[in-house]
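Entry 14. Ran structure prediction on the chain below.
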Amino acid sequence: MQLDVLCIGEMLVDVIVHREGDGWRLEPKAGGAPANAAVALRRLGRRAGFCGMISRDFWGEWLLSLLAGEGVDHRYVARCDPPTTLAMVRLGEGGEREFSFYREGTADTLLAPEHVPDEALKASRALHLCSVSLSKGPAREATLSAVQRAKAYGAFVSFDVNWRPMLWDDHEKAKELVTGVLRRADFVKMSEEEREWLFPGVPEPELLRHPDRREGALWVITRGSRPAQVLYRGEVHEVAGFAVEPVDTTGAGDAFSAALLARLAEMEFDLPDRAALEDAVRFAHAAAALCVTRYGAIPAMPRREEVERFLKERE
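Output, structure tokens:
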């Protein structure tokens, strides 16, 4: 079966930490940006697969069963004995997050190039990845190899920068690796903060001609409640989002990327004209808005009918 999108990288457990009196209440939720996107794509009606290393511990068994239950193709999941990564997430005002990661020698970092078969890449119209899997080897080498091979097979490459500085020992090396993927990607999603980290002080019109931007690529810079900036075909234009009351922003970017990819898949990954693209970005905004009104990442990913109803209510 051909996949619309193969998502490669980490699947982990987000542990939402609630302060209650003198103690803490811990609420585990399935997460990991590429896995979030895979589930979101399935809920939006696309054929999605996940390729990553998942532990044989009890957390890993739960994560794998969740993928299967959501209908995500998990033929390309590898298994190992080291434990599952835990990301402790403390929520602040407006659903903003503070992270603490337990990720030394854990399963997702151990994905190696041989765990990403050519068969998986040939069977996928698009490859979606994020920068977390670039932060440690051998997952770094597996991810870079997958990008190179996917491009050779003619796949569309989608990259969510998803910058997590606490996961990197060397931030300059991180920027080098991230910009290396930017040069190959057909679609890039980054936040305003990530754009400033990568290109400090560079105005948006200059980004259209930047050497780190692949010619013809679609870049979308999300800016929270402010309109997203869309860089495409020599133009920078803005697409407004939706005002909602957020409770947890975890996974919002993944919902946005997956929803935009879902719409691009409908167009055979042939990047559309401005009107169609703006409509697709609006659809992505709606998915992200729904996501932030719920707790967790994977549990918060909306279904297509929910996104369509949300948009209809705001016509």
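The CA atoms of residues 193 and 223 lie 8 Å apart. Will compare against last week's run tomorrow.
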